[in-house]
């Protein structure tokens, strides 16, 4: 039996949180054909943000990286809620990362690697993806990081 994404998560000592309900007029996941578009997810754990503030001011790059990883766990929780099984993921096609930061902050890629590295750890080569990482002046709830995804399913 080959290792499943859920088994890889467990081996990493990680578990999926409960999928967060939308806080406005949108759906957490939109499905079209063999693609899932997952709305931006914040670094929530148990309904609380792991951190607040901006990279380059209140939040270190290391904490930002942990937030990006938690955002991806929340993305995967949405996928699990939609599909019932992460093994139905064929490929992580694209991740979009939004980093709330000061104008002089330049370590966006380092922060977003928290999400990207986890995608590869969970899905292997199918977790390798295209990516955009953008610095923004603010995010909802004063979150430091938000991650969205485009995922191909079987």
From TrEMBL:
CDD domains according to UniProt: YjgF_YER057c_UK114_like_1
Gene3D superfamilies: RutC-like
Domain Endoribonuclease L-PSP/chorismate mutase-like: 8-145
Domain of life, source organism: Bacteria
Protein name as it appears in the record: Endoribonuclease L-PSP/chorismate mutase-like domain-containing protein
Organism the protein comes from: Asaia siamensis
């Amino acid at each position: 039996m080959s290792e499943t994404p859920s088994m890889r998560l467990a081996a990493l000592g990680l578990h999926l949180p409960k999928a967060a309900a939308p806080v406005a007029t949108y759906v957490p996941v939109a499905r079209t054909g063999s693609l899932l578009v997952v709305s931006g997810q914040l670094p929530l754990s148990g309904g609380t943000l792991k951190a607040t503030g901006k990279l380059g001011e209140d939040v270190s790059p290391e904490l930002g990286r942990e937030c990006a990883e938690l955002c991806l766990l929340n993305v995967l929780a949405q996928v699990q809620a939609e599909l019932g099984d992460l093994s139905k993921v064929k490929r992580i096609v694209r991740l979009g990362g939004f980093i709330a930061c000061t104008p002089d902050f330049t370590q966006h890629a380092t922060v977003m690697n928290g999400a990207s590295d986890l995608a590869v750890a969970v899905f292997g080569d199918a977790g390798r993806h295209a990516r955009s990482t953008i610095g923004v002046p603010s995010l909802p709830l004063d979150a430091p990081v938000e991650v969205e995804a485009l995922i191909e399913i079987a």
